[in-house]
TrEMBL record:
Domain of life according to the entry: Bacteria
Protein source organism: Caldicellulosiruptor hydrothermalis (strain DSM 18901 / VKM B-2411 / 108)
Family: Belongs to the prokaryotic molybdopterin-containing oxidoreductase family.
Lineage: Bacteria, Bacillati, Bacillota, Bacillota incertae sedis, Caldicellulosiruptorales
Protein name, as recorded: Nitrate reductase
SMART domains in UniProt: Molybdop_Fe4S4 (SM00926)
């Protein structure tokens, strides 16, 4: 028997999956060949999802932590305890004394029912800001009014494809496939990154720049284009505001400064500029370039380059960062009129918030689809603060965060529930997933858990089954988007080229170089606070994991430049301690000549047996307007570990 579902991972691709079921067990997963974008194949993580579903390490019964040991309890005991804790909090304070943390460990739409539950409770302490992409979203909102992508098929209208900080082979495999097919048609590819990733193998031009220097490169290309009169004057004059300020900044900037900041030469700058002149050029921006304190600024300058070169609103063009096509559609699972006590914390500063908030204090934390101890900055502080509170964690595994829980509720996997999947990172095909297998152990879906909690608290809450919610959500999107769910998936929009009419979603209805809050983006970098002998710590996405979700065994390694390592007395394979005033983490040194000096590269998501993570070394810095965590604006000392 074949059942149809969607990949639950927080990923650009949102793959359509077919599950082969025999005797009630899913025995194989493969890509749905009928899906026009994901095209019948999965990434290595997708193919290994079954191993997670049937893992012997899964939590299959509710667990209660007593003196740092977990004991099995019944669902009735667990839910009664949670309900009683909520009642006590409401007597003592109000519902904002409950903090709700929802991560991106599961991408099904129905998980948002938890937010609706807390709204009905009177509101909770909700998250704002972002760990991963908030700076880029804010940047494109300032420039365009929203962040939208071209149709994946529009890439075949491009002359050049620029992958800017986007290691597509590891993080956006189907885009890599589209790029590969475009190359067969004669399209050219440029890859810009801070080290030679696997995606460089597809590049006609590959450029390695210093971390956090992207805005200088973008402005350098703008400077060259303007000096040579190659800008799109018609677009600039008719459809933009604030250009003269950008022109003035570019004219004052010297190529020598750009070369120094970026670690490139003038010829490299000219090459990038000449690529953008050969329009149409499609630009795909990764989530790495905005993981700095100047992240908003950085993405805006790349947008500027795309706009000035005339690559906005044309076939084969675009500044593709995210695809927020549902931005203006009301959420089914939100009721602000009931959430009278809501307040907000910044995800990047979760530990600090828990430590400092007193009015009222956070008495309870409810965590679902996330692993904040591993994912948030200053992870040691997050762990310590969680341990002081009544913490509910809904998860499939004993993650670093679950180790701090009071109660762990076993979560159903994506194969054990019905759901709707709404991608918002690259393409716009909304999918509906079937329930593929019966629940393993005593696992429950978010809908089942919330329904039972709402009943225990006597809330006037809309109790519906998963199937009923799926139908409700489908009807909601059908009306809002004028679509019809007549199969496993449906395209949500007919927009192949965003902004083709040159009417933007900004206040002026034009592309805005100048923002009323933070003015015009300027070339900037954040190296002015580096201490002697410190190296910048850059955490990157892995091919083998998605954030902290492990799919393959891997050892914690750090990639060093050979000369940096020699200066620090570190040899290849040595165990080294990375540390700063925030914390420390032990890794194995890997030495490479093709990595620039001054920084080290570590894959994100590592967690050792002591609940330590690489984020132990990451302070809770943020990009502009506290839009997201500035993971890569952190610096560490390095010390060889003697055994």
């Amino acid at each position: 028997m074949k059942k149809k579902t969607f990949c639950p991972l927080d990923c650009f691709d949102s793959c359509a999956i077919v599950a082969q079921v025999e005797d009630g067990k899913a025995v194989k997963l493969y890509g749905d060949k009928n899906h026009p974008i994901t095209n019948g194949f999965l990434c290595p993580k997708g193919y290994r999802l079954l191993e997670k579903v049937y893992s012997k390490e899964r939590v299959t019964t509710p667990l209660l932590r007593v003196k740092n040991e977990f004991h099995q309890i019944s669902w009735n005991q667990a839910l009664d305890m949670i309900a009683e804790q909520i009642k006590e909090i409401l007597k003592k304070y109000n519902s904002s004394a409950i903090l709700y943390y929802s991560g991106d460990g599961y991408e099904g739409y129905l998980r948002n029912i938890e937010r609706l539950f807390f709204d009905y409770l009177g509101g909770a302490t909700y998250s704002e800001g972002s760990l991963c992409w908030g700076a880029g979203l804010l940047a494109q909102k300032m420039d365009f009014g929203n962040s939208l992508c071209h149709s994946p098929f529009d890439i075949f209208n491009s002359n050049w494809i620029v992958l800017w900080g986007r290691n597509a082979l590891w993080t956006n495999l189907h885009l890599f496939y589209f790029v590969h097919m475009a190359k067969k048609q004669g399209k050219k590819v440029a890859v810009i990154d801070i080290y030679p990733t696997e995606t460089f193998k597809i590049a006609d031009i590959g450029l390695i720049i210093n971390p956090g220097s992207d805005s200088y490169l973008a402005y350098g290309a703008i400077k060259y284009i303007l000096e040579n009169g190659k800008e799109d004057r018609e677009f600039i004059e008719k459809y933009t505001v604030g250009f003269e300020k950008v022109k003035e900044i570019a004219s004052r900037l010297t190529y020598e400064e750009i070369e120094k900041r970026c670690g490139v030469n003038k010829k490299d700058i000219e090459n990038i500029a000449n690529i953008y002149i050969q329009k149409p050029v499609s630009t795909f921006i990764g989530y790495g370039p905005q993981r700095y304190t100047n992240g908003v600024n950085t993405i805006r300058t790349i947008d500027y380059l795309v706009a000035i070169s005339g690559n906005v609103g044309i076939k084969g063009g675009g500044s593709n960062f995210a695809h927020r096509f549902t931005q203006n559609i009301a959420s089914v699972f939100k009721d602000d009129t009931r959430a009278v006590n809501k307040r907000f914390y910044n995800k990047a500063k979760l530990g600090e918030y828990l430590k400092d908030q007193q009015n009222p204090p956070v008495e309870m934390v409810y965590i679902s689809a996330g692993n904040p101890v591993s994912q948030c900055p200053d992870s040691d502080l997050v762990f310590r603060e969680l341990q002081k509170r009544f913490v509910v964690v809904v998860d499939m595994f004993l993650t670093a965060t679950a180790q701090a829980a009071t109660i762990i509720l076993p979560a159903a996997s994506f194969l054990e529930k019905e759901d709707v999947f709404v991608p918002n990172m690259w393409h716009d095909y909304i999918g509906v997933s079937e329930k593929v297998i019966e629940n393993i152990g005593e696992s429950k879906s978010e809908v089942e858990i919330i329904n039972q909690l709402a009943k225990r608290l006597d809330l006037d809450f809309p109790i519906k089954s998963e199937k009923e919610w799926v139908e409700y959500v489908k009807a909601h999107f059908e009306k809002a988007l004028n679509i019809k769910f007549d199969k496993h998936f449906v395209r949500a929009t007919k927009i192949d080229v965003p902004w083709e009419d040159k009417i933007f979603a900004t206040k002026s209805k034009k592309f805005e170089f100048e923002d009323e809050k933070i003015d015009v983006a300027v070339p900037s970098i954040d190296e002015n606070k580096v201490l002697k002998n410190q190296l910048r710590l850059v955490t990157v996405h892995s091919q083998k994991t998605l954030h902290s979700q492990e799919f393959f065994e891997r050892r914690p390694v750090a990639i060093f430049n050979i000369e940096d390592a020699k200066r620090l007395g570190i040899g290849n394979g040595d165990k080294v301690l990375l540390y700063n005033g925030c914390g420390g983490f032990v890794v194995e040194a890997i030495l490479r000549q093709d990595v620039k000096r001054g920084y080290i590269i570590v894959e994100e998501g590592y967690q050792d047996q002591n609940i330590e993570t690489i984020n132990s070394c990451i302070f809770s810095k943020t990009a502009e307007m506290e839009s997201q965590a500035a993971f890569n604006s952190n610096f560490v000392f390095v010390e060889k570990v003697t055994t």
